[in-house]
Amino acid sequence: MAKVKYFYNPHKLKFETVKISWLTKALRIFGFVCASVVAGFLFLVAAYTTIDSPKEKQLKREIRNYQLQMELMDNKVSQLSAVLNELQEKDAHIYRAIFEADPIPGTVRQGGFGGVEKYRQLEGYIGSDQIIAVQKKLDMLGSQVYIQSKSFDELAKMAANKTEFIASIPAIQPVSNKKLRSMASGFGYRLHPIYKTHKMHTGIDFTAPSGTPIYATGNGIIETVELGHRGYGNHVIINHGFGYETLYAHMKKVVAKPGRKVKRGELIGYIGSTGTSTAPHLHYEVMKNGKKINPINYFFNDLTPAEYDQVREIASQPTQSFD
């Protein structure tokens, strides 16, 4: 039962009943309802911000799990990058050094792999920054792995060429010279046996009896077989590839055939004294990219270090040439 309220009327000097209009009552009810609604709304907001629903708890667990997976992936990518960096270091300073090849420039290894637009679709999500960072690392790693694989392909070709190069380079003496007594005149200015003037001697002379076998000093193809030449007489030129050629002059007999492949140590003819020659001997030359060079530097395959030093000393003597 509602309490009756009174007020003192000083004009009438008595207490009178307080009368409330219907409008006042309506405003009070409306105010109460509004206050209740606001209080309820504030309560709901506080509840939603401080208390997780089961769905929110599940989503948060999934987010934490995804973040953990991203961290593990990021660590794995870093480990793979470290392994790749080690391979790159070996590639640049060991593998390519062996084959005398220039290392791949860092600008090529660290080259671009896509612009900002490539990652636009990954933006706007929870953890987008982390996702984009890992994706960039993966893209960089993929690009570097591709370049490294191409480098290994190139190194494999170099290895094959290196094997062929080692077999092809002139690396032995063209005649049997175990006692080191066959070398008579070396590379350089020598007294010409006919003109009696100092003239550039572009090869090495090996003296031996007529008919002594002459051998190819490296794998190659018989490029030239010429008989009756006024200067070199009967002679053979072998193209070894890689810019190397060798010439064998003043031969008595040639057994090599033009265009035929020969191997190091294979018989190509016999010592004689044809052309401009004063005695049976072999005039032997080595050419590199068309330039005649000292053959003494290419006898390393069938001599010990001591024998090689002895041969160099013999070849340096200012003797008279035989052609």
Write up this protein.
By secondary structure, the protein is an alpha+beta fold. The chain has three domains: 6-50; 54-168; 183-315, Glucose Permease (Domain IIA), CATH 2.70.70. Helices cover 40% and strands 23% of the residues. The protein is built from five helices and 15 strands. It has helices at 22-50, 54-98, 106-109, 128-168, 305-315, and strands at residues 6-9, 14-17, 183-185, 188-191, 198-201, 204-207, 213-215, 220-229, 233-241, 244-249, 251-254, 261-262, 267-271, 281-288, 291-293. Strands 3, 6, 8, 9, 10, 12, 14 and 15 form an eight-stranded antiparallel sheet that branches. Strands 7-13-11 form a three-stranded antiparallel sheet, with no helix packed on it. α2 (54-98) packs parallel to α4. The longest helix is centred in the first third of the chain and has 45 residues, at 54-98. The mean pLDDT is 80.
List the helices and strands and how they pair.
Blueprint: E1 6-9, E2 14-17, H1 22-50, H2 54-98, H3 106-109, H4 128-168, E3 183-185, E4 188-191, E5 198-201, E6 204-207, E7 213-215, E8 220-229, E9 233-241, E10 244-249, E11 251-254, E12 261-262, E13 267-271, E14 281-288, E15 291-293, H5 305-315
Antiparallel strand pairs: 1-2, 3-6, 4-5, 6-14, 7-13, 8-9, 8-12, 9-10, 10-14, 11-13, 14-15
Helix pairs in contact: 2-4
Q: How is this structure best summarized?
A:
The chain is of the alpha+beta class and 323 residues long. The chain folds into three domains: 6-50; 54-168; 183-315, Distorted Sandwich (Glucose Permease (Domain IIA)). The chain is built from five helices and 15 strands.
